[in-house]
Specification:
This protein has a single domain, classed as 3 Solenoid (Pectate Lyase C-like). The protein is about 5% helix and about 30% strand. It contains four helices and 37 strands. It has a 16-stranded mixed sheet that branches. The chain starts with about 40 loop residues before the first strand and ends in a 50-residue tail after the last strand.
């Protein structure tokens, strides 16, 4: 999400009286408690060492400021998440594999892990943890509930930050090895409820999370804002899917310096945000200040499937408001539609790095945005590593500014464009080691997982070789030979736990 920064007052809501229910044995739903826990009110905030209510079927008491302070395991079952549920400092919440959590629409439900708190959400390939809309199959929309927010005590470049989207939580510290828990084999569907207009929660928000935290095998589908957004922190991640989000797929800000490997993004050609939707959107900070730690995250083996694929063009795709109308997925929650922009937009003094990756079918391939901050200067000084990248089916290979769709050189000192010269972003891309421009047909892609778009290299694809990790020192990376997220049709890291039709799934 890239909107204007805003200040938030602490939410205060009247807490309804808490009733005790008649005790009964643990039911088939998996609830570990049949009697509601005691709730105390501290400075207008509901706090409890217990987290399950309504005879063990509901997470949180429904208040928008409920704080869990204890340690509890939520047994495998189906639960409703109501209100904003905070896992406070020193609290620990374990959620068993196979658990289904349905986010309540009326209360804009969200699960928020605060610095010093932990969630152990460790699903498996055969039994993922699913966080989805509580609306019935066939009527779910982006923004039906809030989302998953995890915050920690690692560094960011603003010292202490208010997390985006409205919650009370502040994040950031000096412990880059901080541990916020385990997040593995999780699906997050139809999240992103706006707290206020233009103030949406992301599908998965990660604020100042340290590198002792485990994040892998996550699918975010139909988020009403970004699929993933990092604000500072050092956490690493693998096997991430961004499926048909409203805004950006992978958004990095405020000094995020972790490593991410193996990621797939697929766009819905009818859904884009008013701020212009990108595969990557990357800032150092909102005003572009040259402050440390810089956003220096390294992404490797990413596959971006944009809206302008051959399939979508054959079905009439146009990058305009008449085509990008969200259809039956429009949520009517003040979210505004816009246009698609770039596979990668790097701006506001970011020093993002991406290697061994492929992007297909965007209006623009790369924007090294020279309007605010020193991103262009950093690129010229070798501080951006964008290597072994393949762009295919781009309308414009590069642009030098936000919402500028023409491939023209921008002179920051004069504020003028030179139509006789391609953009600096174009020049930079072509000058980097291993970068290539191809057609989508040349990539020889297929769709073995029925994603709805061709994304996986077939046997004759040039993506199956050519990766390079020269000069890369990260021990987190698997040094594979292929470019993009998949090593061919037999590369099945999405098998068993993903779902590309969450709208019609009966939970």
């Amino acid at each position: 999400m890239k909107k204007n920064l805003f200040s938030m007052a602490t939410l205060g809501m009247t807490v309804a009286a808490v009733f005790s229910f008649t005790a009964c044995s643990e039911d088939s739903n998996g609830g570990s408690s049949s009697t509601d826990p005691d709730v105390t009110i501290v400075d207008g905030v509901a706090q409890s060492a217990g987290i399950l209510f309504n005879e063990g079927t509901q997470i949180g008491n429904g208040d928008q400021n409920f704080v869990f302070t204890g340690k509890q395991t939520i047994k495998k079952g189906t639960y409703t998440l109501k209100g904003w549920v905070y896992v406070a400092k020193d609290a620990e919440l374990t959620i068993e594999p196979g658990t289904i959590i349905k986010g309540d629409k009326a209360s804009k439900a969200a699960l928020i892990v605060e610095p010093g708190g932990k969630a152990i959400m460790e699903g498996t390939a055969s039994a993922p943890i699913v966080m989805t809309s509580a609306q019935p199959a066939g009527s779910r929309k982006p923004g039906d509930w809030g989302g998953l927010i995890v915050c920690g005590n690692a560094k960011n470049n603003q010292t202490e930050m208010q997390i985006e989207g409205g919650p009370r939580t502040k994040h950031g510290g000096n412990n880059d090895a901080d541990n916020s828990g385990i997040y593995r084999y999780i699906r997050i569907e139809f999240a992103g409820a706006p707290f206020q207009e233009d103030q949406e929660i992301n599908g998965f928000t990660i604020g100042s999370v340290g590198n002792a935290t485990a994040i892998d095998h996550i699918q975010v589908s139909y988020s009403n804002d970004d699929s993933y957004e990092w604000f500072g922190g050092t956490v690493n991640a693998k096997y991430l899917i961004a499926y048909k989000s409203w805004d950006d797929d992978f958004d990095t800000d405020n000094g995020f310096s972790g490593t991410v490997q193996f990621g797939l993004s697929v766009r819905d050609p009818h859904i884009a945000d008013q701020s212009q939707s990108n595969g990557f959107e990357s800032d150092n900070c909102a005003d572009g200040a040259a402050v440390a730690p810089y956003t220096t995250a390294l992404f490797s083996n990413m596959t971006f499937v944009g809206p302008a694929t051959e399939k979508n063009i054959s079905e009439g795709f146009q990058n305009n408001s008449s085509y990008i109308n969200a259809g039956g997925l429009y949520p009517n929650n003040n979210s505004k539609l816009g246009l698609f922009q770039a596979a990668m937009q790097i701006r506001r003094s970011s020093r993002l790095n991406c290697i061994n990756s492929v992007a297909v079918g965007f209006p623009i391939g790369l924007i090294i945005d020279g309007d605010k901050g020193n991103t262009v200067e950093s690129a010229k000084n070798g501080m951006l590593k964008l290597q072994n990248l393949i762009f295919a089916g781009m309308t414009a290979l590069g642009s030098d500014n936000n919402k500028k769709y023409e491939d023209q050189y921008y002179d920051k000192t004069t504020g003028q464009y030179d139509p006789s010269r391609v953009s600096y972003s174009h020049e930079f891309f072509m000058a980097q080691t291993g970068n290539q421009v191809m057609t989508e047909n040349q990539l020889a892609l297929s769709d073995p997982a029925n994603v709805g778009q061709n994304y996986c290299p077939a046997a004759n694809s040039p993506l199956l070789s050519g990766a390079s990790f020269n000069g890369i020192t990260s021990l987190f990376l698997n040094k594979v030979s292929y470019i993009g997220a998949f090593g061919g049709n037999t590369d099945n890291w999405m098998s068993g736990w993903t779902n590309f039709d969450p709208q019609n799934t009966v939970y």
